[in-house]
Amino acid sequence: MQERPEPTFAPGLSARVELTVTDADTAQAVGSGDVPVLGTPRVLALAEAATVAATATVMPAGMTTVGLRVELDHRAPTPVGRTVRAQARLATVDGRRLLFEVRVTDGEDTVADGRVERVLVDRQRFVERASRGA
């Protein structure tokens, strides 16, 4: 089996995604609390979406990244109806490991910040392995 060459991702790659908070995004709805504000799992999902978007345009065919580790400080509540923006910037590349710095904002206010580490994998092999339960 021929090994696929590993792509080169350069620190500085970045992307921004946004979300207008709905009732479905609240802590009450996602089961992470009992308050009607943006739930931490949705904040994390938005931050991860920004990391995926940051590498999307340079991702080689057949490859993808998967989440490995997350450090996230959820600092401020966001009510339904507000729009939050997640910015991810690739800070460090260590072989197949990609470390992103992430920040989620509501206007000028920081809602959350932290780091997301992802690892580059062969998509098909990863899915096959997951299907086998390995």
From TrEMBL:
Residues bound to CoA: G67
InterPro entries given in the database record: FlK, FlK-like_dom, HotDog_dom_sf
Coiled coil residues, start to end: none
Residue span(s) of domain Fluoroacetyl-CoA-specific thioesterase-like: 21-123
Binding site for substrate: G67, R118
PANTHER family reported in the protein's UniProt record: BLR0278 PROTEIN (PTHR36934), THIOESTERASE DOMAIN-CONTAINING PROTEIN (PTHR36934:SF1)
Protein name: Thioesterase
Organism expressing this protein natively: Micromonospora costi
